[in-house]
Structure formats: structure tokens, C-alpha cells
Amino acid sequence: MEQNAYQALEIADRAYVLESGVVKLHGAARDLLNNSEVKKAYLGG
Fold this sequence. Notes:
With 45 residues, this protein is α+β, with helices and mostly antiparallel strands. It contains three helices and two strands.
């Protein structure tokens, strides 16, 4: 993910989460920003 994932999700319309080159999650950036799995794994919370 982008080095500042939180900031990227704040300004993006859509986002994709890649893991080992495979798309694991995708959708509206706002939805991913509020996704508990994304928060835990990539946003430190």
C-alpha cells in the first residue's frame, strides 16, 4: 500500500489492497478506510 495509506484513502475515490501481487480487497476508498481488517493490518488500529 501507499506509504501513507490513511492519507491516500482520504483523497482517493477507489482503492485496491494487494498482498503478494494479488488483489485482496477493493472498493470505495472511504469503505476501505472504515474497514476493520484494513485498519488493523495497514493503518495501525
